[in-house]
Design brief:
4-stranded antiparallel beta sheet
């Protein structure tokens, strides 16, 4: 039996030691931290559950594969309008354009307005603006936006009327174009303009 006890350490790859040296090694050993509590904290399944709960609220508003410039109308404050405006031109700052926008009343939408706005940019974003591919989200009072839209529509219609008058008119001292054969045939239609792919 003593032979078996002496051979057991050899089988495990150890040389037999005396009892005093084993006790000294045990006394000098650094206590091993308890692994169970750490494993529970870093449990991948539990961490996945916590992250899933965090993301569920955010993912309701994410439109994967959709329009990256979409802004949920519910986050726009009452009385204001949001529009994406160009900030970069060929990857470079365009200060003169930004000055024009400021003169027209456009201001960058502040990122720190609320959680819905903060969610539009990465957590490590250092600026206080909302940007996408050289575009910046800007705001202006909706009343001013409507006035500008009406003014733009008026000028566009005026250009059409002026061109029609130019086509239908004749120089002084020449025959008028009141006759059916000399009257220009102006047709109005609206169709989409093809957008080049490149």
């Amino acid at each position: 039996m003593e032979n078996n006890a002496a051979e057991a350490p050899r089988r495990r790859g150890r040389r037999p030691k005396d009892a005093d040296s084993d006790a000294q090694v045990i006394e000098n050993a650094v206590p091993r931290p308890e692994m169970r509590s750490e494993m529970r904290e870093d449990d991948p399944l539990e961490r996945a559950r916590r992250r899933t709960a965090e993301l569920r609220g955010q993912l309701e508003h994410v439109n994967e594969g959709g329009d990256k410039y979409y802004v949920d109308p519910q986050i726009i404050p009452e009385g204001w309008a949001y529009e994406w405006k160009r900030r970069l031109l060929l990857g470079a700052e365009d200060p003169s354009h930004m000055v024009e926008l400021a003169r027209a009343g456009w201001e960058p939408v502040p990122l720190n307005r609320d959680n819905a706005h903060r969610a539009m940019m990465p957590a490590n974003w250092s600026g206080n603006t909302i940007e996408r591919d050289g575009m910046i989200l800007m705001e202006r009072p909706s009343e001013v936006v409507e006035e500008a839209r009406r003014r733009h529509d008026y000028l566009a219609r005026k250009q059409v009327r002026d061109k029609e008058a130019q086509i239908a008119g004749t120089p002084d001292g020449t025959l008028t174009r009141d006759h059916a054969q000399t009257r220009p045939q102006i047709k109005k239609s609206y169709e989409s303009v093809p957008i080049p792919k490149d």
